[in-house]
Amino acid sequence: MDIESTTNQAESTGLPEGEGVIGIFDSDEDDEDFYDAMETSHGHVDSSDGANGNAPGTSAEDNLPQESSTTLIPRTSSRKRRIRIPDKPNDKANLWNIMKNCIGKELSKIPMPVNFNEPISFLQRLTESMEYSDLLNRAADCSTVEESLAYLAAIAVSGYATTSTRTSKPFNPLLGETFEYDRTDDLGWRSIAEQVSHHPPISALHAESDKWIYHHDFSMTSKFRGKYLQVFPIGNTHFIVKKTGHHYTWNKVCTTVHNIIVGKLWVDQSGEVNLKEHTTGASAVVKFHPYSYFSREPPRRVTGNVFSGEGDPKFSISGTWDSHMDYAKVTAVRGNTDDIETGKFSRLWSKHAPLADAEKIYHFTEMACTLNEPEEGVAPTDSRNRPDQRLMEQQNFPDANTMKVRLEEAQRARRKIREARIAQEGDSARYVPKWFSKELDEVTGEECWKYKNEYWSCKTTQSWDRCPIIYLQDEEEDTT
What torsion, rounded to 10 degrees, do the Cα atoms 183, 185, 186, 192 define? Predict the structure, then answer.
């Protein structure tokens, strides 16, 4: 399949101004350094000038038979999914007032109120990175790996599009928390995500259609440098085309949040996404240009090239990470790969238009509104069943804050019990994820968390015995 064309190369556009505050810490022990830092990748880009630190410009048991990894059962559904959630209450907490009261205290013991959250968990936010899954379908249908890489470069960039306005933080997943998202009936794919580790925090996701497999595990490190915070993602995304066996991987870039304490928050993305197809050696490099007050280039700019397995440039890519991506075929190379001529640019990807009054619903997209919609038959550990998150969505912030503290205290208690068992029994007492296992990827040679191909079979039979109790059902707390 050839890459679709459009008539005009897009121009960069300004960003609508967002609202909210980025959480810097949370109360669930030291996982706050990971997830609250991660939330800075969803910060606010202000419309003021970039000088003086202001913003520039305008993420059943083991013996059950495994599922087929080649074909999804076709289903039909007349389900109508919601496209709105309850409006965000006009109840703003002040981050600086909280921080003033925290001076001299251990940050990990200070509960961050849900006022700084959005009513979805990070596992749901991770799934939201597939909002533009049509790009994966097109990549799987392309006639050459170089064309596929152009589409995959676009989806790698599109994952940052919502960070321009989404300033509230998702809920930190509890260990063992899961989230399924079944869109087989309309989009042709389904996914399962699990919080597989608490120290260090790691989230794993596996999605699959009849054409492709998409999976990644996500961790990160962060550095707070006073005026700004830098977040460095760890782990690669994998994309496998079932028909050809082509196996693609790519990384994420560094996110920097400016004015973390004083002033209006704004986010910049910088670094390079390196994409590779491991059977042919074809590759692509997409550069996220850091903001410079002295540059005349548009802010949030991305540029790159797609190369054949022999290193010859085939396509040129350009756009902005908050708006669109375009591509053009390379027609001539003069001297080196930095000096190329291209044909006419065509559109690869455009960001969806925002919903009406999006600022009232946390700047959620249409897909984001569906993520926490109640659904029967999901695992008891599913994020939709998380009570503090549900209370927050229902605008009950006081009870949501109380429940959030209870859930975090229960998780700490389970951890202490587990550590005591490990001290007595050894590694056999360590927590074992239920739906993913850590394996060595045969193609890339790297360790990653791979799906066990068991979740959907368990859902069919409603065999949830392996799931831990993490949401305080009937006031009982699982200690396994």
Answer: 10
Report the amino acid identity of residue 246. H
Q: Cα 384 from chain centroid?
A: 17
Residues 314, 374: Cα–Cα separation, whole Å: 46
Prediction pTM value:
0.83
The answer to whether the Cα torsion of 454, 455, 460, 463 is positive or negative is positive
DSSP for residue 335: S
Q: Which residue has the tokens 């459009």?
A: 6
In whole angstroms, what is the distance from residue 321 CA to residue 325 CA? 8
Residue reference for tokens 């009054």: 357
In three-state secondary structure terms, 129 is helix
Which tokens is 255 given? 């996110």
Distance CA 411, CA 174 (A): 7
Residue 370 φ then ψ, to 5°:
-85, -15
Vertex 53: Cα angle to 52 and 54 (nearest 5): 95
Asked if omega into 200 is within 30° of 0 (cis), the reply is: yes
pLDDT in tens, 113-162: 888 899 999 999 999 999 999 999 999 999 999 999 999 999 999 999 98
Selection from 384, 358, 352, 380 nearest residue 371 by Cα? 384
For residue 304, give both structure tokens: 């790159």
Quick one: residue 140, left, alpha or beta (phi over 0 = left, psi -120 to 50 = alpha)? alpha
Separation of alpha carbons 449 and 203, rounded Å: 9
CA distances from 480 to 164, 177, 201, 202, 386 (A): 40, 14, 18, 19, 19
Q: Quote the tokens at residue 213.
A: 């497999």
Both tokens assigned to 464: 């949830």
Rg (CA), the chain: 22
* Strand, coil or helix: 359: helix
193 touches 123 (CB < 8 A)? yes
Rounded Cα gap, residues 153 and 324, in angstroms: 12
Residues in contact with 28: Cβ distance below 8 Å, sequence separation at least 6, in sequence order: 108, 172, 408, 411, 412
Beta carbons of 223 and 216 less than 8 angstroms apart: no
CA 409 to chain centre: 26
pLDDT value for 7: 38
Q: What is the pLDDT of residue 225?
A: 77
Rounded Cα–Cα distance for residues 218 and 255 (Å): 14
Identify residue 30 by its one-letter amino acid code.
D
Return d(Cα 413, Cα 478) in angstroms, integer: 10
End-to-end alpha carbon distance in the chain: 50
Beta bridge partners of residue 318, listed in sequence order:
303, 326
CA 267 to CA 167: how far, in whole Å?
Answer: 10
**Phi and psi at residue 145, in whole multiples of 5°?**
-70, -30
Give tens-digit pLDDT for 389-431: 999 999 999 999 999 999 999 999 999 999 999 999 999 999 9
